[in-house]
Specification:
The complex is a heterodimer. Chain A is α/β, with parallel strands linked by helices. Helix content of chain A is 38%, strand content 15%. In chain A, α9 crosses α11 (330-341) and α9 packs across α12. In chain A, 62% of the residues are buried. Chain B has a domain at 1-37. In chain B, 35% of the residues lie in helices and 0% in strands. Chain B is flat and about 55 Å long. The N and C termini of chain B lie far apart (58 Å). The chains are: A alpha/beta, B mainly alpha. The A-B interface holds A 204, 230, 233, 236, 299-300, 302-304, 306-307, 310, 318, 321-322, 325-326, 330, 333-335, 337-338, 340-343, 346, 348-356, 358, 412 and B 6, 9-10, 13-15, 17-18, 21, 24-25, 28-29, 32-33, 35-39, 41, 43-44, 47-51, 54, 57, 60-61.
Chain lengths: 472, 65
């Protein structure tokens, strides 16, 4: 830990110091690039690093007073978003010959318009479809995965190689890396942030959002990312976010929170049961009213999620699969090939199940006058890079099923969900809970998440130790 | 799941599968068709799919100023 270094500052604090002329954009970017280059040989979180361009842009900002709320802030972009002048390779040989993007994805353009400086593009699990993100390693334990599919973004932010990052979440791909890497991840309401210029995995389930070290940092990023975009029709419906999205004196007293413990949020590793209890106690201490509820309909989420993703991803990639299926890794290839053959009746059954899940959650919010739900983000700590199954009280469960069963319900429902660290478990790895609020009420989930964060304190490792980097 | 059926279906759809892929895809397709933990049709009676169609969406940018 080198707290005096600019790279170690929280995003919001760095932005405030830059705005107050206490720090120059080039100081922050240079420090972060130095950190990035020190840890990258261990983490493998980036597919490209824009060191020279980022420094040049930062020096230009040094000479220009004023600027947006993210002036001089170094950010990373998952390699499914277009970044002008750089190929978007999506972690797949299918896109190995991609030409440089002609323009930024909308989310990237908004970050840059607010003054953020892109230091590089981060790894993604192949085609944003998976929970391992090889070859990236988890900064808490280099033998473990950072999760996925936005694993590079999670690892980079946790290790201090960027102050914030963007990812995508179709069945947990922001929240799983956030939990595994001990950072905050926000999956906003479906349609809150434009998907234009990003690879699709599943049109009806894809969400774009930020990963950051603190809730305040994530809120700042989200406030820049959100809003209507003529290039993405799903962004037209929602009301604007409040400004500011999160106030320092926002409290949780009086908020009603539904606690989810049963299927599909159990079983969990003991550390994750404890994490949920701890988060619950912090919210109660802050004056929130807790009501334990059961939503057994959510136990149907996994089947619906996998059918919808298989069908929509197969359709999206149909042309490329017909030409070059051999370029796709076996795991993702099987999903795409199966999706092409899936009967319409199975897809529609999944979409009808999705409606039922959405209605069940809405009914619970209404009946109990809830403001939010509290649940484990995932049921277990980061898996080893070669680990295929978790063990829960002697029962084996595939890693992909375990991690997605707790996150997918809120992709299906399109609701905002904020994953926030709850501390470090007995394994030495971070745990996390998620706060889920009503549609377009991101501020409520963020407020509750910050109350937990204030009780937990900092858990981000800002590791690994570059002294252990393999010089080769 | 009959792998010959899978191969024929894929060929008709213009997505021919390599022979070594047939067994895996057959298993996955069987799993999807079996609908493990999905809801049976009778429990979905009266529920519309979560697919919205907006006839105005494509006209958003065609209004004369």
């Amino acid at each position: 830990m080198a707290s005096e270094q600019p790279w170690a500052l929280d995003l919001a604090e760095a932005a405030a110091r830059i705005a107050a002329d206490e720090l120059a954009p080039s100081e922050v970017v240079a420090s972060t690039l130095q950190r990035l280059q020190a840890v990258e040989p261990l983490l493998h979180a980036f597919v490209c690093i824009r060191a020279e361009q980022a420094l040049r842009e930062a020096r230009e900002q040094d000479r220009q007073p004023g600027g947006g709320p993210l002036r001089g802030i170094p950010v990373a972009v998952k390699d499914i978003f277009d970044l002008a002048g750089v190929p978007t390779r999506c972690g797949s040989e299918l896109y190995a010959d991609a030409t440089p993007a002609r323009q930024d994805a909308t989310a990237v353009a908004r970050l840059r318009a607010a003054g953020a400086i892109v230091v590089g593009k981060t790894t993604t699990h192949e085609l944003a479809c998976g929970v391992y993100t090889p070859p990236t390693r988890n900064p808490w334990d280099l033998e473990r995965s950072p999760g996925g599919s936005s694993g590079g973004s999670g690892a980079a932010v946790a290790a201090g190689a960027a102050m914030g990052a963007i990812g995508s979440d179709t069945g947990g791909s922001i929240r799983i890396p956030a939990s595994h890497c001990g950072v905050v991840g926000v999956k906003p309401t479906y349609g809150r942030v434009s998907r234009a210029g990003a690879l699709a995995l599943s049109w009806s389930l894809d969400h774009v959002g930020p990963l950051a070290r603190t809730v305040q940092d994530a809120a700042l990023l989200l406030s820049v990312l959100a809003g209507p975009d003529s290039l993405d029709p799903t962004t037209q419906a929602g009301p604007p976010l409040p400004e500011p999205l999160l106030r320092p004196d926002d409290e949780v007293a009086g908020l009603r929170v539904g606690l989810l413990r049963g299927d599909p949020f159990a079983p969990c590793e003991p550390d994750f049961d404890s994490a949920l209890d701890f988060a619950l106690s912090l919210l109660e201490a802050g004056g929130a009213e807790i009501k334990e509820i059961a939503l057994p309909e959510l136990g149907r989420s996994l089947a619906a999620e996998f059918a919808i993703v298989a069908a929509e991803a197969a359709s999206y990639h149909e042309t490329r699969m017909a030409r070059s299926a051999g370029l796709v890794g076996d795991g993702v290839r099987g999903l795409l090939e199966t999706g092409l053959l899936l009967p319409a009746s199975v897809y529609l059954r999944a979409q009808r199940t999705r409606r039922l899940i959405q209605q069940a959650i809405a009914a619970a919010f209404g009946a109990e006058r809830l403001d939010a739900l509290l649940a484990p983000t995932v049921p277990a700590a980061a898996q080893r890079c070669d680990q295929l199954d978790y063990q829960f009280a002697g029962t084996s469960e595939p890693v992909i099923d375990a991690l997605v069963r707790t996150t997918a319900p809120f992709n299906l429902a399109g609701l905002p969900s904020v994953a926030v660290p709850t501390g470090v478990g007995s394994s030495g790895l971070p745990a996390s809970v998620q706060l889920v609020s009503r549609p377009y009420q991101e501020q409520t989930a963020l407020r509750l998440a910050r109350a937990i964060e204030r009780g937990v304190g900092r858990v981000t490792p800002r590791g690994p130790d570059p002294a252990h980097a393999d010089p080769t | 799941m009959n792998t010959d059926l899978v191969a024929a279906l894929a060929a008709e759809l213009g997505a021919p599968l390599a022979p070594e892929r047939l067994a895996e895809v057959a298993v996955q397709l069987q799993g999807q068709l079996a609908g493990h933990r999905s809801l049976p049709a009778e429990e979905l009676e009266g529920v519309e799919p979560a697919i919205a169609f907006d006839p105005a969406a494509a006209f958003e940018h065609t209004r004369e100023e």
